[in-house]
Specification:
Elements: H1 3-8, E1 13-17, E2 20-23, E3 28-34, H2 44-60, E4 66-73, H3 77-89, H4 93-112, E5 116-126, H5 129-134, H6 148-174, E6 180-182, H7 185-196
Antiparallel strand pairs: 1-2, 2-3, 3-5, 3-6, 4-5
């Protein structure tokens, strides 16, 4: 058994389609990436209003959600590549020297300082009736059903229900100034690749061909 096959046994994801994550249990998930809000910089009245709207959002939900923050070391390689490309195109000697020294400064600063970025996510679940009652494998598994039309129809019905939940959360967050957007397929794949491969933060997720 290959290393990749062995690793996949511990990943509960069946596939990702249209930004919707289908688990091996048949349950669906959507992931929202959100903006941040520094409440400490707000006035007392603004803080009270934000907390009230946040409380109203949580009380209005009829389904669970999961919030998590991801800390990741800032990848400056694309920026360095851009600078090095500019350096090759510059003809003025003085400017070329300045760019070269600046690149050296950035590399040294990044090596000596652990620069981190934070991203905030909300996971929204939906459990189709068939998955909740039977506990069987996903009815949305591509190629596993003899009737592709029924499979697509079942997926579309569940997706509509999930998108309604997404809309509820997005609108609730907007009431106190937090923006949210659903991750699409490539973005979700990239996120999971980084989570399951923390030692390869500088690499991009491989292209998955279906």
């Amino acid at each position: 058994m290959s290393k990749g096959s062995a690793t996949q046994q511990f990943v509960p994801i069946e596939h990702i389609r249209d930004g919707i994550i289908t688990l091996k249990s048949g349950e669906l998930r959507a992931i929202l990436i959100t903006s941040s809000l520094n409440i400490a910089l707000k006035s007392e009245d603004e803080q009270s209003a934000i907390l009230l709207q946040y409380q109203n959002l949580l009380n209005s939900l009829e389904f669970p959600i999961q919030m998590f923050a991801e800390s990741r070391r800032l990848n400056i390689k694309p920026y360095l590549d851009l600078l090095e490309e500019r350096e090759t195109k510059v003809t003025e000697d003085l400017l070329k020297i300045q760019i070269h020294e600046y690149i050296g400064f950035i590399k040294k600063f990044a090596d000596e300082t652990n620069i981190m970025t934070k991203h905030f996510f909300i996971v929204i679940p939906y459990i189709p009736f068939t998955a909740a009652t039977s506990g069987a494998s996903s009815i949305f598994s591509l190629g596993s059903s003899s009737n592709k039309a029924e499979e697509d129809q079942a997926f579309d019905i569940s997706r509509i229900q999930l998108e309604q939940r997404i809309s509820t959360v997005v609108q609730g967050l907007a009431r106190f100034g937090v923006r949210a957007q659903k991750l699409e397929t490539e973005e979700a794949v990239e996120l999971f690749y980084k989570l399951f491969n923390p030692g390869e933060q500088d690499r991009s997720a491989p292209v998955i061909k279906i």
